[in-house]
Amino acid sequence: MLKHIALTLILLAALLGGCADETVYDWQRPHDTYLVGTFSQGPKAEELKSKLQKSGYESRIETNIKNGEFQLNVLVDVYEKAPDTLSRLESISGIKPTVRGIPGKTSKNAIPAKDI
Questions:
Q1: What is the pLDDT of residue 90?
Q2: Which pTM was predicted?
Q3: Any idea what DSSP says for residue 40?
Q4: Do the domain assignments include residue 5?
């Protein structure tokens, strides 16, 4: 009898284990990642990141080595469309933003995740 109760409890626990709400993180949501600056010096990358944050964009710095040279790439993830995102990013960074991984290609305009 005790074995049957224990087996029943184990089966119930296994069945109920999959009932929890699944967490969806920002990086799992559809978005475009824009490259808004590439630097060889940390302070310049940090300066651009700070400017972007003051303008309401969540940004990050990613390290990379290309053709034997160390690079600091400043990236911005955008999740929703807005007509002025590219122009705003360009006015802050001084260069035309590109979709990460696709040189020269720009995506539809979007706004940063924090403005959703």
A1: 93
A2: 0.64
A3: S
A4: no
